[in-house]
Amino acid sequence: MNEEKLLADFKSTSKEDWIAAIEKELKGKPFESLVKPNEDGFSVKPFYDRSDLPEVLQPTHEHADWTSVQELHLTKDSTELIRKIETDLKQGLDAFSLYIPAGFSPKDLPKSLPTELIHSWVFWEMTPEWQEWLKDKPAEAYVSFDEPTLAAILKTKDIRSDIVSPTESNEFKQNPLILSHLYAEAGCNLVDQSAFLLLAIAIETLKGIHPPRHFGATIGVGRRLIPEIARLRALNRIWKRPEVISSLTQGIPFTLHARSVGWTLTPEFPYNNLVRLTLQGTAAVLGGANSVSLLPYDYGLAAGFSDHARRMSINIHHLMRHESHLNRMIDPLAGAYAIEHLTNEYEARIMERYYEGFVEFAESPTGYIRWLKRQIEFGNASTVSRISSGDTRLVEVNHLRAREPENKPEWAENPFLDANADNFLICPRTVYDLIQQDAV
After folding, report:
1. How far apart are CA 347 and CA 341, in angstroms?
2. Dihedral pair phi/psi, residue 118, rounded to 5°
3. Which residues lie below 8 Å from residue 139, measured CB to CB, with a gap of 6+?
4. All domains in the chain, ordered by first residue
5. What are 82-124's pLDDT values in tens digits?
């Protein structure tokens, strides 16, 4: 039987028919009562249909597989660092991000450190000694510079024009890495995180840090599966826009490194985090991230980054790749009504926010920093308020809390979390303290 004739035997259902059926189930309530505003500044409908698709579907990314990355933190115990590397490699990990706190020098690195497996070098403090050391290291790696906007927002109390003024072009052969996941850790919504990332790259471009072979950026992936996928697809698409290529990217490839948002993990009931990490990894892969770093389920605890927790994070990659086969199909959600509509929505709103910030920067670099600081303050206050009120639900933390943790968690130190009044980062301890205060 002809397929067209077969389909003709069935009456098509219009959007109006669906809305009528939904309102019947609502027993008098209007369909609009189900249309809810989200955290990113626009409303989301309970269903979408063909009329919500754009006339032309634009591709977002051309890859299916990803690099699995694990975070390492340099310590004085080089033996333990090498042991963790060897253990993770035996379990099938692809690469590492090495975080280097202030006060360390190249002399503190283990001699047997496999530098060819370091995906990115993340420095809390870039020194001339590290600059010289990097000159003969693999060019494929990414290096985080003392990124200007985050330096102003998170590390200093001074608002200085030289923070964002043009400087000499850097001599690193490695690719620059923008640590934009910190915007997510501060509580900014998905639109702001993405726009601030583009603005950070624009500032680096104006400062003369060109031409790298690639531009890299860490992006925080949190708890909302569908919006996270749509936002990542939008970022990948934005990078290909002609006006963005001509004014910002100059045709340089863009590598998106997705990382779990730490404050969404709840150490007092750590095994719940395995599900959260699986959803975050799925969102990152389906959204088109080039590499993915999943934090251990015990992140935030003094005894965190345990061998078992690190192994479970690596196994999530294996499950996504070898059992769910997410690496076998490019952009499998392309064409889905809701995904495509939300991708377009995020793309438009991210660009609107980007242009707003760029106007601020063009008028005054110092004024731009003040503007950015106000936006982060607002995002932070909004997230903290939603956690306290329960609007942002964390299972067994502020929602469906059927049991109490046996012991008060012993928290890990965080180099960014100190007594500095300008610090806006949220962490698992912040969430825990908020809930304890509300419970009193």
Report:
1. 10
2. -85, 110
3. 173, 174, 175, 213
4. 67-339 (3.20.20.240)
5. 999 999 999 999 999 998 888 899 999 999 999 899 999 888 7
The length of the chain is 440
**Do the beta carbons of residue 65 and residue 321 sit within 8 Å?**
yes
The conformation of residue 122, written as its DSSP 8-state character, comes to E
pTM to 2 decimal places: 0.89
Report yes or no: 137 and 274 within 8 Å, Cβ to Cβ. no
Closest CA relative to residue 187, chosen from 425, 6, 371, 405 = 425
Bridge partners of residue 72, in order along the sequence: 98
Report whether the peptide linkage leading into residue 211 is cis, meaning its omega lies within 30 degrees of zero. Answer: yes
Tokens 């997510």 correspond to 184
CA dihedral 54, 57, 60, 66 (to 10 degrees): 120
Cα distance between residue 82 and residue 68, in whole Å: 18
Interatomic CA distance for residues 308 and 225, integer angstroms: 25
125: CB partners within 8 A, 6+ apart: 101, 102, 103, 146
Backbone angles phi and psi of 112, in degrees to 5:
-90, 15
Check: CB of residue 93 under 8 Å from CB of residue 68.
yes
- CA distances to 56, 147, 224, 233, 248 from 283, rounded to whole Å, are 24, 26, 9, 10, 26
